[in-house]
Amino acid sequence: MIRLLRLGFFALIVRPVLLLILGTNIRNRKRLPTTGPAIIIANHNSHLDTLALMSMLPLADLPKLTPVAAVDYFGQGAFGWFAKHIIGILPIDRSGKTPRKNLLDGAIAALDEGKILILFPEGTRGEPERIATYKKGVAHLVKARPEVPVTPVFMHGLGKALPRGTYLFVPFTCDVFVGESWTYRGDVNAFMERLEERMSGLAARGNFPAWE
Amino acid sequence: MNISTPVLYAIGAIFGLLILATILVWWIGKNKPGDASDELMLRIKSWWFMIGVFTIAMVIDRAISTIFLGFISYLALKEFFSLIPTRRIDRLVLLFAYLCVPIQFYWAHIGWYGMFVIFIPVWMFLFLPMVMVLQGQTEGFLRAVGTVSWGLMMTVFTLSHTAMLLAEGDLSNGIAAGAGLLLFLVFMTQFNDVAQFTWGKLTGKHAIVPSVSPKKTWEGFIGGAISTAILAAFVGPYLTIMPWLWSAAAGAMIAVSGFIGDVNMSAVKRDLQVKDSGGLIPGHGGILDRVDSLTYAAPVFLHFFYYFFIGGRA
User: Distance (Å, rounded) from C-alpha B176 to C-alpha B307?
Assistant: First the structure.
């Protein structure tokens, strides 16, 4: 039942709204992974990021798509239920109650099940359309499963459409740049350097108007 | 089904032309594979898409056609707002600008000409800066108010004239009705784009405004305009109540204004340093690249027709 609700939510609400009202402009869509296990890494500007990313893959892949998000932010109420079951997030506990070494267990298990994880290593939506420093958790995850391909995605525009701290939705075209995937080699720091290099490379391909 | 015979035949003829063009480009592509034929094929595919949607909208109902035209206008406005520099504080103003789209197309749909011509140039021209100034940020105010108002005029006000053609034409364009007027405008505008491009390719030597659009030449412009006027002389009496000479004049005006609309958008893109304005239709750049000629041709043609065939007769 919930699976059907989730499918309906994406097929009848999210996708039409994104396609007709917002409009996404995706470069190199074919680089997105369609089989799991895989990891998609994106910059985070808006609540819409997750939905937009999930809509870029075929609807048939929806059961595989698992965005990773902080459990404390979404809480236990209706919002939390919605995030967990309809969006299908995999919660990560930032509070410190979970021992550090077990934090990624859920994510690793999901990869082992063949899921496609969506990660926002900035950890926060932060200042719209500005990249915060990436957290290293993602590198530790990939270190645990080094054969899993990582695909970087840079998005622009959603932070203008629905930035943090407002419910006023204003349409802007969303530009998406999909980078080439790679797998973990070397160490955590080398991975992070590579990630930052790829993301800034993708960002540089856009010619974005000023937004002050 | 409330479509008239002349319009039905005209749509049939356009389908015939497209089939011919598709075969031709397919044949060119087979004998001379390359970027040029790929590009042409993409363009033709887009025309198929456009004429398909257009036909469905026109055949079903005028309200559906108006909603479709309004949606195109919305996409153009959104593309424009996404291309220009904007201020974070103006998000509310932009939202109001978007809300103008359904309202303006509603005025067109009910045929309230008086409100239709003043809603954006007067009411929104006064209202949007008011909202903006009440937000209290003066830095970048003039640029913001200028770009937002201009964008609204260029994408919503001008393109809503297509919907007004439908409403006015139903009352005063005889048997071909509004659909005939709109089809005349859109077909002539598209034909003129192709004709100017072809004449330019074959004979073009002297650029008109090289700093804006180096490929636009006097030869292409004049050749295209004459071709369009001649075709209009034949098509006009069939799709509109205009006699052949008036139709030719309308065709020439559409050709000239379409050209201005085209270079006008090119100047905007040059200023913003973008090549294509978006990626909605394959091979056709963005939606603004598709409607650039119409932004000038639609109001010019409506007011030409209004003045000589509606106002003059009343």
Answer: 19
- From the list A163, A209, A211, the residue facing B272 with the nearest CB is A209
Structure tokens, A142: 């990939």
Residue at A212 is within a domain: no
Predicted confidence at residue A99, as pLDDT, reads: 75
CATH code, domain with A25: 3.40.1130.10
pLDDT classification of B284: cutoffs 50, 70, 90: very low
Give domain status of residue A171, yes or no.
yes
Predicted local distance difference test score (pLDDT) of residue B314: 43
Tell me, yes or no, if A206 comes closer than 8 A to chain B by beta carbon: no
In this prediction, residues B248-273 reach a mean pLDDT of 94
Q: Assign B47 a pLDDT band (cuts: 50, 70, 90).
A: confident
Enclosing domain of residue A68: 2-205
CB contact under 8 A, B94 and A210: no
Q: What pLDDT is attached to residue B285? A: 55
Helices (H), chain B: 5-31, 35-60, 62-83, 91-110, 113-118, 125-135, 141-152, 158-172, 177-203, 218-239, 244-272, 287-305
Residue reference for tokens 């033709």 = B44
Nearest CB to B91 within list A20, A168, A209? A168
pLDDT at B142: 95
Q: Which residues does chain A have within 8 Å of residue B144's beta carbon, measured at their own beta carbons?
A: none
Q: What pTM does this model have?
A: 0.90
Interface check for B78 against chain A (CB to CB < 8 A): the answer is: yes
A168, A207, A209 member nearest B84 (Cβ): A209
Contact with chain B for residue A166, Cβ under 8 A? yes
Q: Give A150's DSSP letter.
A: E
Is the pLDDT score of A153 beyond 60? Answer: yes
Average pLDDT over residues B63-69: 90
Q: CA-to-CA distance for B50 and B294, rounded, in angstroms?
A: 14
